Amino acid sequence: MTAPVIEARGVGLTFQTGDGPVHALKDVDLAIAPGEFVSFIGPSGCGKTTFLRSIAALERPTAGDLRVNGMDPDAARRARAYGYVFQAPGLYPWRTIAGNISLPLEIMGFSRADRKERIARVLELVELSGFGAKFPWQLSGGMQQRASIARALAFDADILLMDEPFGALDEIVRDRLNEALLTLWAKTGKTIGFVTHSIPEAVYLSTRIVVMSPRPGRISRVIDSTLPRHRPLEIRDTPEFIALAHEVREGLRDGHAHD
Ligand SMILES: Nc1ncnc2c1ncn2[C@@H]1O[C@H](COP(=O)(O)OP(=O)(O)OP(=O)(O)O)[C@@H](O)[C@H]1O
User: Sorted alphabetically, which keywords does the UniProt record give (predicted)?
Assistant: First the structure.
């Protein structure tokens, strides 16, 4: 078996708050192989974001061991192991789309010529070629989110971490972006960790679905997808898709039963 890109062993994270400890994660064991598309789904407060943020070294686990490309998350961050996409696009309004994508590259010290080449390439990947000179407010919400994905892709990290990137968008736009994301994933072979509240989105996108439950946040079920990698949107009407969605729903219900 190839070495996992992300490996969690007994990971726990307890926040100390004024109201006492909050067990955001407990005993999380998970290994993600290169090229997988893994979704995290579960009710509010089950630790999905905390787990993604821990991978990205934005939170520090208080128990267990977490490795990203074989390194501790801080070292992985320094090695630019991943790009991170937040729920809100978070683009600077005073910079053009190209300028926004350029910013992390500037901070990392990429040359002007290299930046230009990378910006053109990622804009094409997210189907925004020709929009580089626009300002964020001149783009729709879906286009802005695609621009933020382009920004996360620009420095060629193998891992893409996405925290509910399409949660704020209407369903038609979300469908289109889901399709575009699968195309992008097929083209780039990246490993993707994706947080969502939507069962159809998780089933449509993932090779594996991690169902989580709250208090304490933990993994209650891991479901391997039986769907082929090539997935037209109509796949959502097939019995295989409906069976997987059912299994996720059952997992969510089981998780609640422990409350
Ligand atoms: N910085 C923090 N300090 C204290 N508690 C926190 C902090 N961040 C998260 N929590 C708590 O940890 C638990 C897990 O939160 P987290 O945001 O990871 O859940 P989630 O599954 O992503 O929820 P949602 O779907 O609402 O985004 C929650 O009870 C939350 O209130």
Answer: ATP-binding, Nucleotide-binding, Transport
What pTM does this model have?
0.92
Provide the residue ranges of all domains of the chain, joining segments of one domain with +: 6-81+157-257, 91-156
CATH class of 6-81+157-257: alpha beta
Pocket of ligand 1 (CB under 6 A): 15, 17, 22, 24, 42, 44-50, 217
Residues shown for the chain: 259
Do the beta carbons of residue 25 and residue 61 sit within 8 Å? yes
- Side-by-side strand order, sheet with 37-41: 82-85, 159-163, 191-196, 37-41, 208-213, 218-224
Please write the tens of the pLDDT for every residue from 68-114. 999 999 999 999 899 999 888 889 999 999 999 999 999 989 999 99
Write out pLDDT tens, residues 31-41.
999 999 999 99
Q: How far is the CA of 215 from the centre of ligand 1 (A)?
A: 11
Q: What is the ipTM of this complex?
A: 0.95
Residue 258 to residue 255: CA distance in whole angstroms: 6
Q: What is the rounded CA–CA span in Å between residue 92 and residue 76?
A: 26
